[in-house]
Amino acid sequence: MRVHVADHPLITHKLTVLRDASTPSPTFRALTAELVTLLAYEATRGVRTHEVQITTPVTTTTGLAISEPRPLIVPILRAGLGMLDGMTTLVPTAEVGFLGMVRNEETLEPSVYAERLPDDLANRQCFVLDPMLATGGSLLSAIEYLFDRGAVDVTAVCLLGAPEGLAMIEKATDGRDVTIVLGALDERLNEHGYIVPGLGDAGDRLYGTV
Ligand code: URA
What is the ipTM of this complex? Predict the structure, then answer.
């Protein structure tokens, strides 16, 4: 598993404003989009391309174009939706699918309750959007779901991560082509499973339910 933790003052600045409990949801949403666009730049470093011939006003030359099948962006409902605009801003030709994950209250096991994905994921590079990599349970389920459906590599883009969740995903995906791109790696999880220092409940803050 590859892990990339962003190291850029613009990203840290935007994250600092997101973390602030007094930041209202309209600002939170706008900053999330900007932040994801910056993270998408790193997340798409390995996107598959092929050579194309083009004619400039001056001469003919070769360039690179994103290959088929197009990358697939998969926001995990609900909070991952708040990251979609930022990602499609940078990769407008990507296809978008959706995954809804829910945790069984008795077993605590996450499972997929809704999905809208292309039928054929064979050979697909997938970009999963999930703002908070906390325990890692739902993100791992989503990653496994995509591999089971034929994806060849999966990159998760998260605003914040906790070491506990990162270690769990690393162990569980051993030998698979998984990349995690984080805006920051925080200290730990608290007893309620929240990332510390974190930013609170990302879905609530995005959609104004606090
Ligand atoms: N999900 C959130 O929205 N926030 C956390 O801190 C952990 C999980």
Answer: 0.96
Bridge-based pairing of strands 72-77 and 125-129 is: parallel
Measuring CA to CA, which residue among 195, 157, 160, 155 is closest to residue 36? 157
Task: Tell me the C-alpha distance between 195 and 79, whole Å.
Answer: 15
Residue ranges lining ligand 1, Cβ < 6 Å: 132, 134, 193-195, 198, 201-203
Binding-site positions: 78, 103, 130-138, 195, 200-202
Instruction: List, for residues 88-137, the tens digit of each pLDDT value.
Output: 999 999 999 999 998 877 787 888 999 999 988 988 999 999 999 999 99
| CATH 3.40.50.2020 holds for 2-207 | yes
Residue 205 and residue 42 in contact, taking contact as beta carbons nearer than 8 Å: no
Residue nearest to atom 6 of ligand 1 (CA): 194
Cis amide prior to 69 (ω within 30 degrees): yes
Number of other CB atoms surrounding residue 65 within 10 Å: 11
Interval between CA 194 and ligand 1 midpoint (Å): 5
For 157, counting Cβ atoms within 10 Å of its Cβ (0-12 exposed, 13-18 middle, 19+ buried), the class is: buried
CA distance 178 to 68: 20
